[in-house]
Description:
Structural class: alpha+beta
Bound molecules: zinc ion
Strand content: 5-15%
Distance between the termini: 40 Å
Number of helices: 2
Number of strands: 4
Mean pLDDT: 84
Helix content: 10-25%
Radius of gyration: 29 Å
Amino acid sequence: MGVLKDRRRLCRHCGELHSVFDWPDNHRDPAPARSDHPAPFVIRDDIGGINGLFHHGDGKRYDSKSAYRQATRDSGCIEAGGERPQDRSSFRSFEPQVSEQEVFADVCRTLAEHDVSVGSGELV
Ligand SMILES: [Zn+2]
């Protein structure tokens, strides 16, 4: 393991140099506001809109997200989009069936058939 060099930066609060690894807490900028509202992380149950959201499972309209999700479960459907990422080790890797040169040659041949000129025509 290497030795960390002590890097210093000029503090805009006091004008002194501080180590970036040991910056005084009272010389930090305050975290930027995430919202103008006092409670920015409230997630409402209201869907909004005039007539609510149409549910294709039971044919009714819902104003409530939780009621909509319950109707989805009750009708035997699955709400997609909130899944956790899967283990990528089971994913197949992509192995192209043709080489890059073959694709390039095919594109050039097609462009030539249609009388389209392309720069030098060499694979970069
Ligand atoms: Zn400072």
